[in-house]
Please model this.
Amino acid sequence: MIKRFPLGSGWMIIAAFLFAMMNILVKNAATNLHMNEYELAFWRSLLPALTIFGATLVRKQTLKTPFFWGHMQRSLAGTTALLLAFYGLGHLPLATSVTLNYTSVVFIALLSIFWLKDKPSSKTWVALLMGLAGICLMLKPAFASDRLLDTLITLSGGIFTAFALLQVRELSLMGEPAWRIVFYFSAVATIVSAIAATWFGWSRLTSESLPYILGIGVTGLLAQLAMTHAYHVGKKFTVAALSYLTVVFSAIYGVIFVGEHIGWLEILGIMAVILAGIVSSVPDRKRVRR
Model:
């Protein structure tokens, strides 16, 4: 049995920081070097795919699976979510785009109710309504600007993220190890993004773009490993709550170093989405045996 201890949850702080760094690198590469989301997603996915493939050879494990089509559904949904998230990073303020991706908790609740026919608890309703209120607050400024389409495109990534996470749960319940799930997602994302980048055009590799490419791949891989380790040794609720530090780190960087302006409605919306995620992570109360 794996011993869980409070300090283990601190790995999520490291993961959140690394995810924020990856988002910052993606945004800077998109805005400063004009790299498109397809090639950025390719470099983000290539390193994890190669790393896990190499590890399976060293450990003499197998990538064969009886749930191939389940992996394809999860991977295609996850790839779509990744591309939409990277699109948002290139077209919206950093904190706004990252928060819109974290609305997946709202869509997970909706999919669980209408697709999986789960009976929602009062906690789920609170999180759902809070998350929907946050989305509405974030959409209102977009209606008054020219960012509505970009906001809706990025928001749709939360739907695909929710579907991908539900598929991850199903695959995990069927006994699939996390590393195999991550490999198929990374491999599919690499292939799909490579095809799309070839169609829309690759940016020329230069001494200026290479640090961004390596940084995106390394921070993405290390963040994934740190997050996995956090859930492995930490407390689930604490880890889930700390994951929202990615939004906080991204917002701080965007305001201080990029000079992005975030309106008070967007700030309230971001806070509502974060609270919705934390509430949804709280374990349901169980009757105590006497």
